Amino acid sequence: MSAFQQLGIEAQLLQAISELEYSTPTEIQEKAIPVLLDQEHDLIALAQTGTGKTAAFGLPILQNIQLDKPFTQALIIAPTRELCLQITSDLNKFARHLRGVRILAVYGGSSISAQIKELRQNVHIVVATPGRLMDLMDRQSVKINQVKIVILDEADEMLNMGFREDMESILAHTPAEKKTALFSATMSPEIREIAGRFLHHPKELVAGKKNLMQPNITHQYAVVQAKDKVIALKRIVDFHADFYGIVFCNTKIETQQISDILLKDGYAADCLHGDLEQRQRDKVMSKFRHKSVKVLFATDVAARGIDVKNLTHIIHFHLPDDIENYTHRSGRTARAGQKGFSIVLLHIKEAYKLHRIERMANLKFERYSIPKAEEVYQARIVNFIEQITNDVDETKLTPVKNEWVWPLMQMDKEKLVEIILRSEMKKFNTNYLSMPDINVEEKLSSGNSHYDRSGESRGRGGSRRRTESSSPSKKSNNVRLHINLGRKDNLKYDEIREEIFKLTKVSGRVIRDIDMKNTYSYFMTDPESSSKLLHCKNLKYKGREIQIKKPD
Length: 552
Description:
single chain, alpha/beta, Rossmann fold, seven-stranded parallel sheet, 24 strands, 38% helix, globular
């Protein structure tokens, strides 16, 4: 019996979630599904974004829908268009084996007449933003007087966006005997007041501690001068060839200005802010989801409701004043068990904010050194060469005639390599390489953490991370190690680094000069990291024991 079946989920839904590779319920799903299935109790659930909330309320809703009754039985209210569309998409995936269920998203910025036409087709589940739902109610185009369940998703965000009156008006127009579930990342006095007015003897549950960060997010900070923040951002993006993330700024002017700077310099960048029309916003988000934009600048307000998978980085151009905004920002990476990085570009005067977030969110920031220009250049060359050497699928090669490439075949090998690299690395010219190290080696201290000039950060756990003072670029004391992962495991060089990090929690930045063989690989690292790696035990990769040792 599957874990979801034990929670009471029926066969058709089990089949769908099995096909979606849902095997083990998340904490919020395990706690909320039984409560929502029994139809007896209202619910208050405290859970962060990205914890699996949609399945937690979506599966019980779909299971309890009476398909033979052609009226709206479930209402889900969410703060933004993006979240509405994401919820609707997920519900349709869960319902793929349910015949006849009709789900509709209604939101501002899209044709209201088209939505009215859809509503006339007897929709079972409506997913709505508060403003558009109120418009439809005023036109008497949506009937919510028979709904059996109402879900308020990200209720705290709706309050922050000024939807309190709309929420209360909507709830007042629903039947008194309905079931109501409120999902929120925080329990503010306003949330408690709304729950007291509209929920009846609710069960309360918490998925994880309040403000608890996802364990797969690495929280880091880099200290730079304010004038160097744009340079620092560029170097982070340049160094990480797979960078795909959101850069949070405090003002819409800043998002536009910095986005324009990066776009002018050839980066795949764009921005979201409050001055964009819905059509422009949709265009930006489409490009971002399809990765034609890799660096998205946004304010906290503009980013609400964004749910994009596989983000590698969240960059805080400035720290927010509100701890909750930091948790919301960072929680957009490391979804579904993936690894993610949250990096703060910190001016020395913002140190007090960093310490406050550490204290209130119960986490420790690691010191991150902005890569030097030479390190960026080296990393990009290594990545470019790895891409070429790993792309060996001859079936995908474009056929060429010998006479076309004959001039290249006559060239000196070293000269040809130099020309190829020069073409790829033209962005990293002499001016780029001559730029100085921009890390500020200032001392930051508070009651909880101590960051000293040596580049180590010490926190509650007593762990420490070496930064520029023990940079991997210093090769005088390199240690060569062996790991039984290789080409047969279908891993690329960067993926081996990532697997070592996942297995050992030793940063991939200290793993270099990987020499990959068929069933094993060699790599170089520094003595401190070598000691940590050699003491790691019981490592598993796809059920196989992994050993890291010194070469025989």
